[in-house]
Amino acid sequence: MGVADTPPRHILVATDLSPWAGMAVTRVAQLSREHGSVLTALLVLPAEIGEENADRAINSLEAHLADHLDGAPVDITIRRGTAAREIASAAVDCGADLVVVGAHGAHWLADAFLGSTTENLVRMSPVAVLLVKKPAEGAYRKVVLAVDTSATSADAARFASGLTPVAEHSVFHACTVVGENLLRMNGVGEEEIEELRRTSTEVVREHIARLADALPTPLKEVVITSGHPATRLVEVCHAYAADLVVVGTGARSPVSYALLGSVAQQVMRQSQSDVLVVPAVDG
């Protein structure tokens, strides 16, 4: 499985019946209407839950979906086990090309930061994961596409552009000088470091321009700046009042599976916008 250039044909929404998950279901209903996507709703129950409580949970799920889907047809799936693993597995089994979850939940997404389940899901998921933080008030309108010079970044931007065809899209890239602190420790001055930043910016500008020209939707603007990528990205999203920010996770490996990319992780935790995290395409 990998990232498609077309809008999602099949969306999996995982819910724990909480209000945050309800916002995710409402967003899925909007995306389904916009793209004609097939919907599957998933509830993951603890392995040890009794049958009587499971039956009550299923009834609650049906009421929850009726409240938030506004009549959109949906298939229902119930699984038992660890939430992140079961969600990722269900995405494969049902052929989903997008997984949608809420930012916080009643249990499996309730942690001090964002929630280890959500971050584990992003690590495991073979398809893009949309983290819903805001109520869905129509289609996405302002989208920030975070890009670098990788093929993964271009794939993520194309997928997001297809997912949000009526939005204003802004491409964002933050240039950094590798080893800035080490340079300072070796006596390199701020003026020299700033010159290195300017040089890096000019080198990357042509590449980002080509990437932007290849996107399927027109762009509002291309922002190339310097600084810590995740920090600057969160700041730009806030300044633009973006309702969605898009990041890639980079290539998958045993290391990248264990450590979620720092930019994606920080944006997931700190952004006030919804966050779409797109994995690298296998192969």
CATH superfamily of the largest domain: HUPs
CATH-derived architecture of the largest domain: 3-Layer(aba) Sandwich
- What is the H-and-E element order? EHEHEHEHEEHEHHEHEHHE
Number of strands: 10
How many structural domains are formed by the residues? 2
How many helices does DSSP assign? 10
CATH C-level category of the largest domain: Alpha Beta
Helix content: 40-55%
Largest sheet: 10 strands, mixed
GO molecular function: ATP binding
Domain UspA: 9-133, 140-279
Keywords: ATP-binding, Nucleotide-binding
Protein name: UspA domain-containing protein
Explained architecture:
Residues 106-114 and 251-260 have low confidence and may be disordered. This protein has two domains: 1-133, HUPs (Rossmann fold), CATH 3.40.50.620; 139-282, HUPs (Rossmann fold, 3-Layer(aba) Sandwich). A ten-stranded mixed β-sheet has the order 3-2-1-4-5-10-9-6-7-8, with helices on both faces. It is 44% helix and 21% strand. The protein starts with 9 loop residues before the first strand and ends in a 5-residue tail after the last strand. The protein has 283 residues and is an alpha/beta fold. This is UspA domain-containing protein.
